[in-house]
Amino acid sequence: QVQLAESGGGSVQAGGSLRLSCAASGHSHSSYCMGWFRQTPGKKREGVAVLNTDGQTKYADSVKGRFTISQDSANHTLYLEMNNVQPEDTAMYYCAAELGPVRVSWCLASIRDIDYWGQGTQVTISS
Questions:
Q1: CB distance 97 to 34 below 8 Å
Q2: Residues 6 or more apart from 81 whose CB is under 8 A from it?
Q3: pLDDT digit string (tens) for 42-100?
Q4: Which stretch of DSSP H or E encloses residue 106?
Q5: Buried b / exposed e across 111-123, counting CB within 10 Å, b at 16+?
Q6: Strand spans (E) along the chain
Q7: d(CA 87, CA 59)
Q8: φ, ψ of residue 118 in degrees (nearest 5)
């Protein structure tokens, strides 16, 4: 029932910024963890940044200090502000949701437990 739709991907030069958005619909749960995951060809999907209904956030070490995850609860929209992007950030970025009172650290790492996925939006960073 939960549907996620990403937008905001594109091509940006290294050092630039990008803002990804994820619009959620059909979500009536009071507890959840939502975030962003990315995948490049030949590699497994990995967690980038997540947040939960307790207001906690968790970032992958590779993006700490550069990316910021946030949400507009009233509009059911999740955001990822990407600053000082680097070529290694190039990937397909997916919005995801895991229902329940999930610890943010578990949410970031437990990709197998994700309940819903968006279609993905491509982010390409040129050097």
A1: yes
A2: 17, 19, 67, 68, 69, 70
A3: 999 999 999 999 999 999 999 999 999 999 988 899 999 999 999 999 999 999 999 99
A4: helix 104-109
A5: beebebbbebbeb
A6: 3-7, 10-13, 18-25, 32-39, 46-52, 57-59, 67-72, 77-82, 91-99, 116-117, 121-126
A7: 18
A8: -85, 180
Contact between residue 38 and residue 63 where contact means Cβ atoms under 8 Å apart: no
Query: Are the beta carbons of 10 and 18 closer than 8 angstroms?
Result: yes
Structure tokens at 93: 């970025």
- Return d(Cα 12, Cα 3) in angstroms, integer: 27
Q: How far is the C-alpha of 5 from the C-alpha of 61, rounded, in Å?
A: 26
pLDDT, one tens digit per residue, over 20-43 is 999 999 877 789 999 999 999 999
